[in-house]
Design goal:
The protein has one domain: Up-down Bundle (Na+/H+ antiporter like fold). 76% of the residues lie in helices and 0% in strands. The protein has 18 helices and no strands. The longest helix has 27 residues. The protein is globular, with a radius of gyration of 18 Å. The C terminus is likely disordered.
Length: 332
């Protein structure tokens, strides 16, 4: 019973993020106490939670479906950064918002995509692997792409972004991976509550940033909201189209769409605060991003759940027995 309640509360993450964002617009002080190093440690806890769900076998599974994983990770770091840069230029965003939009577009896929893939009846095992691989690739690609695309707006210290990414992504994930094998009993005890803790921390991070930037959000209004909405709608749409162009079946198209369209917005917020201290508003697109991609992803999951995928296209590389295990791990 308790497990089902925790699972139910976790699956409502889009509602919690939206509720936190709306509350922060009217009662900023409820959330602005959560700031600075608290946000950094909060993201580290989220990534640690991801790490304890991983095992060495997960890395071996990448070898069983390399083409699909490569497609998803490649699309993540090609489609989204291009969209972020293009939208910032097209809408002539203010410097801080442009840098923030580009930064979040250069981030890896978020772990929430695994839950959405489960709800959408997509390929959960593939989603988990794509998230894992894009997270590790982000240690190099996020700083490099951000410097390349956002460098026209402000000087970008790629080395500082790299160090911050190692600190809040790589180190916690590797620690979680080690704990998965070294302390299996502890991990089994923690796993049921870990996803809900991650949701709570994401809500706090996003609401805190929105609360601090209420005035700038109200001033930018429709322009900023449109920019973030276009980023994620474009990611979901182009991810699906790309998988279709490569001949994959509907199951994998949905998975790639979700993985590309959903970003690790918490990472974007932390990197914006640490990498661009002179531009406090740069973290705002990440906070709005968390709300938008959660809502869009959940909407698609609801639609796709009612429409079972039809057979056809390239056969999935995933062994059928792998998907239930990945789904169970995602929901724990």
């Amino acid at each position: 019973m308790l497990g089902r309640m925790l699972q139910w509360a976790t699956n409502l993450f889009p509602f919690w993020v939206l509720l936190g964002g709306v509350a922060a617009m009217f009662r900023p002080t409820w959330f602005t106490w959560f700031h600075g190093q608290g946000i950094v440690w909060g993201l580290a806890v989220i990534m640690l939670g991801m790490g304890i769900t991983l095992s060495v076998d997960d890395f071996k599974r990448v070898l069983t479906m390399p083409r699909a994983v490569l497609l998803g990770v490649g699309a993540q770091f090609v489609i989204m950064p291009f969209l972020g840069w293009s939208i910032a230029r097209l809408l002539s965003l203010d410097t801080a918002f442009a840098v923030g939009l580009i930064l979040v577009s250069c981030c890896p896929g978020g772990t929430a995509s695994n839950v959405v893939s489960y709800l959408a009846r997509a390929n959960v095992a593939l989603s988990v692997l794509m998230t894992m691989c894009s997270t590790f690739a982000a240690v190099i690609l996020t700083p490099v792409l951000t410097k390349w695309l956002a460098g026209a707006y402000v000087p970008v210290d790629a080395w500082q972004l790299f160090l911050q990414t190692v600190k809040v992504v790589l180190a916690p994930v590797l620690l979680g991976l080690a704990l998965h094998h070294a302390t299996p009993r502890l991990v089994r005890a923690v796993l049921p509550v870990a996803p809900l803790v991650s949701v709570a921390v994401i809500v706090l991070i996003c609401a805190s940033i929105i609360g601090k930037q209420v005035d700038s959000i109200r001033e930018s209004g429709l322009t900023l909201l449109t920019a973030v909405l276009l980023l994620h709608v474009g990611g979901f749409l182009l991810g699906h189209c790309l998988a279709r162009a490569f001949g994959y079946d509907e199951l994998i198209r949905r998975t790639v769409s979700i993985e590309v369209g959903m970003q690790n917005s918490g990472l974007g917020a932390v990197l914006a605060q640490k990498g661009f201290p002179a531009l406090p508003a740069a973290a705002t697109p990440s906070a709005i991003s968390a709300t938008f991609h959660s809502i869009i992803g959940s909407f698609l999951a609801g639609v796709w759940r009612l429409r079972p995928p039809r057979a056809g296209g390239v056969a999935p590389e995933t062994p059928p027995a792998e998907a239930p295990a990945a789904a169970a791990r995602t929901q724990d």
